[in-house]
Each structure stands twice: as structure tokens, then as C-alpha cells.
Amino acid sequence: MADMDWPGCAKSLKGVILDMCGVLYDSGEGDGVAIQGSVEAVKKLKTCGLQLRFCTNETQANREKFVAKLGRLGFDISVPEVFSPAPAAVAVLKERGLRPHLLVYDGLLPEFDTVDKTNPNCVVIGDAADKFSYENLNEAFRVLLGLEKPVLLSLGQGRYYKETDGLKLDVGVYMKALEYACDLKAEVIGKPSPMFFQSVLDDMGLQPHEVLMIGDDLVSDVGGAQNCGMKGVQVRTGKYRPSDERHATVTADGTVDNLAQAVDLILNQRN
After folding, report:
1. Which of 16, 73, 92, 232 could form a disulfide with 225 if both were Cys (CB 3.0 to 4.6 A apart)?
2. In Å, what is the CA distance from 224 to each residue of 39, 142, 143?
3. Cα–Cα distance between 169 and 25 in angstroms, integer?
4. Digit-coded pLDDT (tens) for 39-59
């Protein structure tokens, strides 16, 4: 059942931001699986006059490959509509003259082709999946420990995400390990970073109160959006767990069974 308090904001909405993994689809073997009703829900949003963007912490492929995968699942999404941490990280690296040691998934490496990686003076960590070996984590640890002013950039801080065969540890777990070992605080690029959400709002040309975020992660999606002045709705798909609705610090503006239900509630309010 849906929390029916939130849809009233739909009348004044000008834009919607959607999380992807856990909202549109569940990742897993091959391209993963589209969540029931999500393909049609995206189509409805694209034809109702609202601006639509997709905000993801996906860091196992570049945006082009990621969008192509979603296309094979039936979604009509273009690369410019997708905001992910890697391009934002590249901009930060260039602006600050940072040369990264990369602990990321192999499929993401091309995103950093334009960045100088000689003699690293920082570490960038993403969801490296099987690359999160002791050897690779220890190498990143040694790079950081050898720097006078160590800088750790993390492409998100999620604790876990859902694949078709169950929950998997996310980048935040390994980020925390390096923070603890090196006695430092990582800079998060991606959700729930206010800078990341603001870049999406700037691209839409909209104010926070004009935009709704829909995601399955209560802290990164809903809480991150709320911290920027947006409303945040959580879906009971993906990584959602019933305990989320009793979270100590974050309460969703609404909770719905899935994206299809959220979209129907929005459109009903606007008609």
C-alpha cells in the first residue's frame, strides 16, 4: 500500500529524478531484469510534460554502456539524461590537479582516460566488485598512507545493493575501511552528495521544491534529495527493507510499492 500524504505536491512538480538500480531494474547476470511496470512508468513520465532525469551511483560501466544495457531491457533513455559519479569525479580531479590511483571496476576505466594518473596524489574508489581484493585494497591504503595530505574520493557511499541473486556489499563498506585505516574522511561524489544532486537540478534549470526524487535507498536517494530541499519517495523494490520505515534519521515523504504506483499517483494528481 502507498502512503497517500505525499502526492499533493505533484500538482506543482516540474521535474522528477529517478534512481535506476532497484527502481527501474535489478542488476544481475547478463543485463539484469526490469522491475515489473517500470518500463511503462518511464514512458508515462516522458509524455506528461515533466522533465525527467536519472541519477545513479552505478560505477561498473560508463554511461554509454549502461544506457545501452537499459535499452535492451526496454527503456528509452539517452546518455545526457543520466547523471553518474564518474564524470563528476573527472571534473573534480581536473579542477584540483589530482592524479588518481583508481580502485574501480575495469568497465569504468575508460571514463578516466583523459586524467593524468602518473605519480598518484589521491585515491578514487568505486564499486569495484571482485576487484575489492586484499591486495588491491592494501595498495590503495599504501598510496594514501604515503601522501602528506591524503585525499580519498568515493563514487558513492552505499552499504549494499540488490542483484537478482540477493544483496551485495557496495562501495561504502570499503570506503569506510580505508577511512578507518588511514584516519581520514572520504569526499563522496555521487548520491547523497548535495553537490551531485545540485548538478542535476542545474541541468534541469529547476528549483528543489519543483522536483521529486524517487529511489529505493532511504539514505542516499531520499535523504540526499531532502537535504537539497526536494521531496523524496521510496519504493518497496530493490534494496528496500521494512526497517527503513523506522529509520532513526530519515523519513521518506512517501512510500509506494513500486515506480509504476508512484507514477500513477503523480499523474492522477495532475489530471
Report:
1. 232
2. 25, 31, 30
3. 18
4. 999 999 999 989 999 999 988
- Burial classification of residue 169, based on how many CB atoms lie within 10 Å of its CB (0-12 exposed, 13-18 middle, 19 or more buried): middle
Cβ atoms of residues 82 and 64 within 8 Å = no
Peptide bond into 192 cis (omega under 30): yes
Contact 178, 152 (CB under 8 A): yes
171 grid coordinates: 562501495
Q: 51 φ, ψ to 5°?
A: -70, 145
Could you report the per-residue pLDDT of 69-108, keeping only the tens digit for each? 999 999 999 999 999 999 999 999 999 999 999 999 998 9
Q: What was the pLDDT predicted at 61?
A: 83
Residues 90 and 110 sit within 8 Å (Cβ to Cβ): no
Grid cell for residue 55: 541519477
The residue among 72, 13, 2 whose CA lies nearest residue 236 is 2
Give the bridge partners for 168, in sequence order: 161
Whole-number Å distance between alpha carbons of 215 and 239: 10
CA atoms within 13 A on the CB side of 134: 0
Closest of 130, 129, 174 to residue 152, by C-alpha: 174
Q: What is the DSSP letter of 26?
A: E
Q: pTM here?
A: 0.87
